[in-house]
Amino acid sequence: MAPVRVLLGALALVAFFACEPAKQVEEEPVVGPTADLVVGKVGGDDVTVGDIDDWIKDQLFNQATRGANPMKVYEVRTRALEQMANERAMERAATRAGKDKDTLLKEEVEKRASVSDEEVQKYYDEHKDRFRNLPFEKVSPAVKRQLLAQKQVAAMQEYTKSLREEIGFESSLEPPRFEIAASGPAKGPADAPITLIEFSDYECPFCKASENVVKQVLEQYPTQVKLVFKHYPLPTHPKARPAAEAALCAAEQGKFWEFHSLLFQNAPQIAPEQLVGIANAAGLDTPKWQECIAAKRNSAQIDADLEVGKSAGVAGTPAFYVNGVPVSGGRTVDDFAKAIDAELARLGLPVPPPPAKPAAAQTPAVAPPVAVQPAPPGAPTAPAPAAPDAAPAAPPAAAPQAADDGHGH
């Protein structure tokens, strides 16, 4: 069994109890070298173990926060605070139960997480086309393991959260807030109390995937949210900037959102020579639109959007801000709702009740692993099939779990 610290620190990233090694006889811990032990020289100066450890800590922090990006620093500190609370709550609960922490955690998770044969059959029946016609008998063990792993992670989150609440937990950490001018193509009430700003790239697959989620957010908050779109074409996407300039030329004819939607529908088939067909489909005056593109009338606006994004710490696309606060996490509708509701509460405005979720939403989804951000549960999506002796591959969530960082994703 992995140590409690590891389990509590990776709630949404690893499968719990996936495969346990055989129990080993406990041994005395090996004591490492002392911090003041000299282990090298650089330029004639002594280097101690403590010097190396401090350097490693700085490097790890820099990597985890992407160079001390303000939002990443906030996320790392928030997760660390919650993990500290989890461990202290677990220690108290284990002492009270007269058990060690690992045993207690395993027992509590097993109480809360199970998968019936009926659930496995239902999942297979609903997503049969994703399993490349493999028979149920071949894939059911893998499906059951994967669904159980997800339920165990959710159970551990539920249990540790209840322990935190029991001992008392609060966080005063505040996310960074950036001043971002709400200029550019917009939709929603002009006087909406919440401005959702999106930095996006028409060649980015994650941006394309987020379109439906943003649509659902606007439907859920019809009077509270205004969307402002800003262009952030990445240098690794050669078709993105011409498409952005073409979209702004469509805006001159009052057809931005029509052209915008068609761009994402057709992406990645949005090379300059393919844009004319999209312009015709959007109902543009094509010669006038082409004249605008040739004159590069909107190039300066795209440059301005790029500079604003850089100042706000945009590290990849899509990037979203709720009244200047970056939206972190998996960017599901629930992620946006959490950020929007928090802002409405801060402003002293009523928070609308969440919409009822369809019954299908109760089907467990297999969340994809994410290197930097925790992966909150998203809308259910069928996993891609895998070999019978392996768990199904993770599907994309309702919205992209990671941003396109400009490395050709």
How many helices? The count is 13
> How far do the termini sit from each other?
36 Å
Work out the radius of gyration: 25 Å
Q: In sequence order, what are the helices and strands, one letter per element?
A: HEEHHHHHEEHEHHHHHEEH
Estimated helix fraction:
40-55%
Number of domains: 2
What is the CATH topology descriptor of the largest domain?
A: Glutaredoxin
Examine the secondary-structure arrangement and name the CATH architecture of the largest domain: 3-Layer(aba) Sandwich
Report on the structure:
It is a single chain. With 409 residues, the protein is α+β, with helices and mostly antiparallel strands. The chain has two domains: 4-16 and 48-167, no CATH class; 186-346, 3-Layer(aba) Sandwich (Glutaredoxin), CATH 3.40.30.10. Helices cover 46% and strands 8% of the residues. It contains 13 helices and seven strands. The strands form two sheets. Strands 3-5-4-6-7 form a five-stranded mixed β-sheet. A two-stranded antiparallel sheet has the order 1-2. The two termini are 36 Å apart. The model is unreliable at 1-26 and 360-401 (pLDDT under 50).
